[in-house]
Each structure stands twice: as C-alpha cells, then as structure tokens.
Amino acid sequence: MGKTIAVREATWLRLKDLMKEEKANDFDHLVTILLEKAKDVPRSMFGLDSRRRITFTQREHEKITRDVHG
Questions:
Q1: Separation between Cα atoms, residue 55 and residue 29, nearest integer Å
Q2: Which of 22, 40, 42, 48 is deepest in the core (most CB within 10 A)?
Q3: What is the pTM for the complete model shown?
Q4: How far apart are CA 59 and CA 7, in angstroms?
C-alpha cells in the first residue's frame, strides 16, 4: 500500500530534477536511492559535530542552505 507525503512545490521540483539525474524510474525509486546513499555516509565525516543533537526548523535549514548555495 502506497503512502502520501507532503512537500513544498520547490522541494517537489528539486526532486523531479534529481530523479532525472539519478535515473530513477519514479519517486519511490528515488527515495530508495537517496536512503541508500544516506546510509553509506560514515559518521566520521561529521567530525566533532557527529555527537551533537542539533535540530533546525525548516525555515532555519532553508536560510542556512540558501546562504551557503547562493
């Protein structure tokens, strides 16, 4: 049985672009690819921050990524 998730329009458009880049057949396939890639990221890549329990609101995250990526 499928499930529905809600994302903002901008997120949906980014996912559509990423689906083409990853050659995913559909969004389910794309999510599976992304989950596998995320699972393979070693915790050592996060250095000292790997043990911190920092969470951001959606708005904070968007501001940080907007500032970093222009």
A1: 27
A2: 22
A3: 0.55
A4: 14
Question: How long a stretch of residues is the chain?
Answer: 70
User: In three state form, how does the secondary structure of the chain look?
Assistant: CCCCCCCCHHHHHHHHHHHHHCCCCCHHHHHHHHHHHHHCCCHHHHHHHHHCCCCCCHHHHHHHHHHHHC
The Cβ of residue 30 has, within 10 Å, a number of other Cβ atoms equal to 19
Q: Helix crossing, 27-39 with 9-21: angle to 10°?
A: 80
List CB contacts of 18: < 8 A, sequence separation 6 or more: 24, 30, 34
Instruction: Name the residue with higher pLDDT: 70 or 17.
Output: 17
Question: Are 36 and 30 in contact, with CB atoms under 8 Å apart?
Answer: no
